[in-house]
Amino acid sequence: MPEQIALSLQEQLHQLSHEANPARLNPLLLDGYERTLALLPRLEKLDLNDAQTQTRSRLAAQQAQGLLRTLHQSFIRLAQLRSNETGLFSTNRPRLEAFGMALESAWQLACLYSRTLTPLPIGFWLGCHQLFAEILELGWSTRSLKNGSSLGSLYRQLMLLGISASNRLEPQKMALLFKIVEDEARYLDLIQLDQALGEQGTFIYQTNSDDAPHFAHELPHKEQSVWWMIDTQRLLKRLSSKLQRLLTQSEDRHVEIQLIGRLLQEWAAPPRRQHFRLRRKNGEQIQLISLWPRCWDIAAGRIDDAAPEPAKLNICNISASGLLLQGESLNQPLQAGEILMLRRGDQHWQLGLVRWLSLRGEGLSSECGIELIGRSPEAVHIAPITSLGEDPLTPALSLAADSRRGHNGMLILAGKQYQAMRMFTVHDSRGICKVRATRLVMQTAYYQFIETWLEEITPKAQPEG
């Protein structure tokens, strides 16, 4: 059982906290680090369809976090012990590598917390900032490590991940984000500010605060404050060139293209809210159903007595386009990019989409941003029309034309079936329709939202009176 292995490993790491000899401590920590990285995939493995397994998986994820936190703090202590080494034959290399492992373990810890959708522990950012402040003082930011990286590039990886909204990404895109950050972070420019910010704003941070970098249009008024800015222009030029190359390739790289397009906006300036949000403090709750088969059944009016009860989450705020929800949702699993059915009181069911998700507190209750897609979706069956005829019918959801949301009718399909001007046969409550795909409104890793135009309809035969 991976949980038992994690408990044993945590105990071994705890015993190392009493080791004061850096020469003995270093190989033991490196061994524990390699064993922990090998164990992480087993501890993080989730089964989103089973509430009992989800609870166990969340506890296992917390164990994984505990292991990496312990290792990260131990590598920081090792760097401190190395700084006290003196003697005729002592060199700076062991201390340099200890700094490297402290930042490398910080990177792995930040990625783990992103994958498990939880906020980083208190003290994480202050520890990383102070490490790098000491590295700068020593003049070691460009020094190379054994793995070919440098202390400066590792710190920049943390900064770049810190300005990324990873909790808005599906797992596939999140893994790709980590790879892009590792490849491109060295092109960030970190500049100590000595003047006011420009009109367009920038990302700023302080090395004496426990905060990730954040976007600002002006500096807070704090006496004797030293601020740093993150200039992303060199990085954005590289990403823009990479995007152009991907767009000219014949192979299907739509996920990477989507993500880079998003990062080009996010790393220039994070998007602003489009609608006013109204806070709710009256404890109003909303019913929530997740996963494609369950949502389709609800839209079809089917009642499955064996299906889990809808989750009931608290509405924290609401706008014209979405909701902020909080609460426990083990029986109705949530992840970014997943569709939902939502209902307030006795109103009609609405279709929603999870835009971002965080798990907070010891119980890891959910906090999520939901985009409202449309009211009263209809459960339909569709088949693309090809040169060979029609493919087999598959379930889909259909929304009527909505001028406020700017579409003439929409199909929501699982998978990737969109092609411009492609024809579909749709079996719905009106009869058998032929519709043309006119626009891909949006897509996630799991679904496509396709605007359609009605070309032809064969009404259902009316029963004889």
Provide a brief overview of the structure.
The chain is of the alpha+beta class. It has 10 helices and 18 strands. The protein folds into 3 domains: 186 residues, no CATH class; 98 residues, Beta Barrel (Thrombin, subunit H), CATH 2.40.10.220; 82 residues.
What does this structure look like?
This protein has 465 residues and is of the alpha+beta class. The protein contains ten helices and 18 strands. It has helices at 2-15, 22-44, 51-83, 93-115, 124-138, 151-162, 171-184, 233-247, 254-266, 292-299, and strands at 189-192, 202-205, 214-216, 228-231, 278-279, 285-290, 311-318, 322-327, 339-343, 350-360, 365-375, 378-386, 389-390, 394-399, 410-414, 423-428, 431-443, 447-459. The strands form three sheets. A six-stranded antiparallel beta barrel has the order 6-7-8-11-10-9. It has a six-stranded antiparallel barrel with strand order 12-14-15-18-17-16. Strand 7 (311-318) and strand 8 form a beta hairpin. Helix 1 runs antiparallel to helix 2, helix 4 (93-115) runs parallel beside helix 6 and helix 6 packs antiparallel against helix 7.
